[in-house]
Structures are given as C-alpha cells and as structure tokens.
Amino acid sequence: MVRELAFDICELAPVTYLMARAAGLPLTAIPVFLDRRFHHGDVSCAANSGIATPGQLEHRRVGVRAYSVSTGVWGRGLLAHEHGTDLSTITWVVDDEDHLPPARPPRIEHVRDGSTLAALLNNGRIDAAFGGNAGTGRAGTPRTDWARGAAANDPNARVYPLFADPDALANASYRASGIYPLHGVVVLRSELVHRDPELPSRLYAALRASKRAAVAADPDWRAIPHLERQRTIVGPDPLPYGVEPNAPTLATLPRWATEQGLLTESVGWGFAPGDYPVA
Known about the structure:
three-stranded antiparallel β-sheet, D-Maltodextrin-Binding Protein, domain 2, six-stranded mixed β-sheet, alpha/beta
C-alpha cells in the first residue's frame, strides 16, 4: 500500500501510516483500529542471558521483526518511559525489512544467514526478543510459515518472559496513563477522498454499524479471547473507535515514534474529531 498505493481501502500498521504521512504519501486514515493489545508480556529473554530487569537490556542485542513494527514501538516506549531503559544502547536485530526507512535509524543489525529470531533467541545468539508477529512467533522466514510458532515455543529453549505478571503491569499502566496501544488503522487513498470528501465519514459509519452488529451477537467478546480478557482492564468496549476515547493513545504513538528515530518530528493523524462520533 505505501509503495504502490495498491488498494482503495486498506488496513495498515499505524506506525507505517505515520511514516507514510510524514513522507507525503497520499493516504487518509479514519479512526478505526482493528486490534488493541497491551505489550508488557511481549519481550522474552534467552535462557542464559541473566536479564532480570528492563535496565539489563541495555548494551544487549534484542530481536524485533523490523524496527518500525508497531509492537516494537509500543514495547520500546514502555521500556523507556515506564522503566527508564536507555534504548540508544541496544542493538536491534531484525530479520525483515521496514516498509519505509526510519528517519534516524539507531543501531540495527540485519540477520543475513536465514536464521529466524526464534532460533537466535533459543540458541542464545540474541539476548531477548519481541514475540508474536513482531518477532519470535513463527517458525520460518518473514514470508513463510508466518502463523507457525513452533520454533518460538520450543520446550527445550527455556526462554522466559521479562515480566512475570504482565497483566498487572498493563492494568497499572492503563490506569496511570490511559494509553491503550492500537494496531491496524483503516486508510484510504487520498485521491478517493478528494473526489468524494464524505467517503471517510461514510466508511466510518459503515464500520461502526458492523461493530455494533458484532457486539450485539457477542456482547462479551468471547470470539476474540484477548479482547475479552482486556475488558477487565479497559472496560466494556475493548475496541473503541473514534478520536476522543483514544486521545491519549493517539497523542503518544507519534511522539514515541519520533523519539525512536522513525520520524524527524511528530505528525498528526489527519482526522477531524467532529467527523467521527464515538463508536
């Protein structure tokens, strides 16, 4: 989407959207976010790393699929702002490419021998890594075996989580800051918006109606277990649309992306709050 404008409407990683917007690409977002997750449980440490606190990640090699992946940006921001970790001392080991180049790239080391981050972590060749789609949650390369987590779940690896009780940390973090990390923003080609300025608000209304129908059929969100669990932290709506209910989160992500060298300066999202009622 960011390289070819291949679709009229597309789900895009929010950090990629901000980078595209900063680069002047003709994309327009609406405040519909198709996933939400907390990230305190995303970092695992190699068995013999000796890492016991976030500060001990400093001067280490930490895996993440690509430096700009949104989970990495959220996770690094939490490490820096909640735990005082000096991100500039860390070497980020990646096995995939960024969709757009970071503005001021930090220390990035690319995997060149075909190894996955899961294998590197399990073998102790990196000290820690992000999990899931952001790193170790697959057995193959970034374009193969994407959904398979066999290598990441090797029972002989003895990797361990950085935080023993991530849910408690997520709860405390949300209560203190109101930040509820967002993923999967819906974007349109701006050419279509220029032709039909009402298109974004109509698309928003359609997705809002779709969400209402889904919630009516599954009011406890049992079909999406991680969102069902997150209701205990954020309240009855674990997937809020609109600008106002997401204000702290929308303000934070551009700032953290700038601090981490992905943007030269914080950029806005480009939507007008009045056009998008809370859903």
